[in-house]
Amino acid sequence: MTRFNRGAVYADGKIIYNLLDGHTVAIDAITGREVWKTQIGDMQQGETTPMAPFVAGNRVIVGPSGGEFGIWGWVKGLDVATGRILWTAHNMGPDSSMLARPGHGRYTGEANIGVSSWEGDSWRRGGAPVWGWISYDPQLDVIYFGTGNPGPYNTEQRPGENKWTNSVLARRPGDGSLVWAYQFTPHDSWDYDSNAEMILVDMVVGGRMRKVLVHFDKNGFAYTLDRVTGELLVAEPFANVTWAKGINKRTGLPIFDTTKMTGASRGNVKDICPSLEGGKSPASPSAYSPRTGLFYTAMNNLCMNFEAAPVTRIAGTPYIGATTPYYVGPGGNGGEFIAWDAARAARSGDQGEVSRVERQRRHRRRCRLLRHVGRLVQGRRCQVGARVVEVQSRLRCRRRADLVSRTRREAVRRGVRRHRRRLVPAVRRRAVRRSRRRPAARRFRADLARHTSQGGIVWIFGL
User: Fold this and answer.
1) Which one in 40, 166, 254, 351 has a CA-CA gap of 20 to 30 Å to 243?
2) SS3 letters for the chain?
3) Average pLDDT in the 405-424 region?
4) How confident is the model at residue 368 (pLDDT cuts 50, 70, 90)?
5) For the segment 52-107, what is each residue's pLDDT rounded down to a tens digit?
6) What is the mean pLDDT of residues 412-422?
7) What does pTM read for this prediction?
8) 347: pLDDT confidence band, cut at 50, 70 and 90?
9) 357 has which bridge partners?
10) How far is Cα 281 from Cα 222, in angstroms, rounded to an integer?
11) Which residue spans of the chain are classified as CATH 2.140.10.10?
């Protein structure tokens, strides 16, 4: 396996995984013998395959990365027994390439919208990779996945809505046929990929029990869609958003702030939120609790300036065309962990605008609670302005943590003891020895050890 791999899947007695070089491999789970190996991507065009394959029925679903290399995005269905490619569905282009039949079933897109929403043949190098997560509803026999950004970042080289980039697509795993599609960010000007997870839940929305799909997008909006029809039910910001004023619930389209639109002729567009890291990173999946009925996610509070530039595509090389420095957003914190009510489209517990004094009071109360844990594992900071408590996983004080159970306390101590004596002093000793025998110009490694935090960070929240 490659070093860059998002995981493997087990099915039919096989362990199936992707290689970065565009191959999907199946090995016998007992013997480790290779059963089949299929080439699915073309590295010469910039396609790589770090995603974890997904099995639905007797199909292995795979897709590529390469949105920054100008690929023609696709998803493929392989036979789980033989590895043979049974179908390939592109995410833009002619209906025949997208395996789309407008007017049949739930798909209501215009004929060949995957071409008409682009200028010329720019769809052939338009991106829309599928490198993230796939969900499956076995009752409906439908898979759901998000597509990535269009290429290049310079929007003036690809006028139009650029369907179906930055979208969720619903397909039949058996033949790949398109059931419905919804685009989160038409004509993406900010690299707001939609590859993050699609969470499938049955819940009451608007007084009706619905089969829904909940998605926290990089663009800063949280969406609740009917996963049977693709109908937009709820769309509200969960992060700080400046590129749009909201989502039109009737059309499903964003209400753009035209001052934040980017392009080479617009120069350096400032104060765009979220940054291209997204309101939530696709690499940090959200979670759902059936007990509380709430969704939990980490969100980013980052903004950026965006300066686009013309770029020419050379196959297999980056096709970007933008400079995008970013910075911490309003409030001075880099992000938060939130609970989200997908039916009401609001953070759990939100009661409207809270005064600054009340926010400080609530935060100090949370800090006092978490300082009990800080007595067990070193607390790095608990500042009112930051609204974040970092608890570093290194034992400093053995005082009793009243709110931590004995079982959990002992488990943490055992884990810390196992590595503390061996790792922490060793790093310091090696740094000192190396700094003594190396010239000053080569002491960067000692500095790196000195400035690098030891251990990870433990976050403890109540549902």
Assistant:
1) 351
2) CCCCCCCEEEECCEEEEEECCCEEEEEECCCCCEEEEEECCCHHHCCECCCCCEEECCEEEECCECHHHCCECEEEEEECCCCCEEEEEECCCCHHHHCCCCCCCCCCCCCCHHHHCCCCCHHHHCECCCCCCEEEECCCCEEEEECCCECCCCHHHCCCCCCCCCEEEEECCCCCCEEEEEECCCCCCCCCCCCCCCEEEEEEECCEEEEEEEEECCCCEEEEEECCCCCEEEEEECCCCCCEEEECCCCCCEEECHHHCCCHHHCEEEEECCCCCCCCCCCCCCEEECCCCEEEEEEECEEEEEEECCCCCCCCCCCCCEECCEEECCCCCCEEEEEEECCCCEECCCCCCCCHHHHHHHHHHHHHHHHHHHHHEEEEEEECCCCEEEEEEEECCCCCCCCCCHHHHHHHHHHHHHHHHHHHHHHHHHHHHHHHHCCHHHCHHHHHHHHCCCCCECCCCCC
3) 49
4) low
5) 999 999 999 999 999 999 999 999 999 999 999 999 999 999 999 999 998 877 88
6) 48
7) 0.78
8) confident
9) none
10) 13
11) 8-347
Q: Which of 286, 314, 341, 288 is nearest to 70 (CA)?
A: 314
pLDDT score for 134: 97
Q: pLDDT digit string (tens) for 294-322? A: 999 999 999 999 999 999 999 999 999 99
Angle at 374 between CA 371 and CA 375, to 5 degrees: 100
Buried b (16+ CB within 10 A) or exposed e, 72-109: bbbbbbbebeebebbbebbbbbebebbbbeeeeeebeb
In residues, how long is the chain?
463
CATH 2.60.120.10 corresponds to the domain 8-347: no
> Average pLDDT of 216-228?
97
pLDDT at res. 203: 95
Query: Which residues belong to the active site?
Result: 68, 149, 191
